[in-house]
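Narrative summary of target 7.
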Amino acid sequence: MLAETTKDDRFKQAIAAGIDPYIGKREMAKLRNCSERTLTRWVKERRIPAPELIGVRKVGWRASLANLSFAELERIAKEQAGEGEVPAPTPVTPKSKRAALGSSPLRQLAATA
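Modeled conformation, tokenized:
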């Protein structure tokens, strides 16, 4: 009977083999002692590097980034962004024409009549 290997065992084996494995958002949040939402906010603020796309719906960070200081993570994040390049803010668009107009079409007709 084969012994079951846990995720931690596979992680340790990968590091021992010289492979820098990926860790997901949940693991990174646990190692950084913060919430997953805080990680997302830090990425937007460029305080930590953006996660890499691992699969179609999975992103993660290299495990080696988990133990770096915040100053080092911020430097890497700024390098990813292109040395101080600040993105333009994304405009907030209403979900529908009605939301853009601010009132119902019937009220608008009554106001123009």
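The chain has a mean pLDDT of 76.
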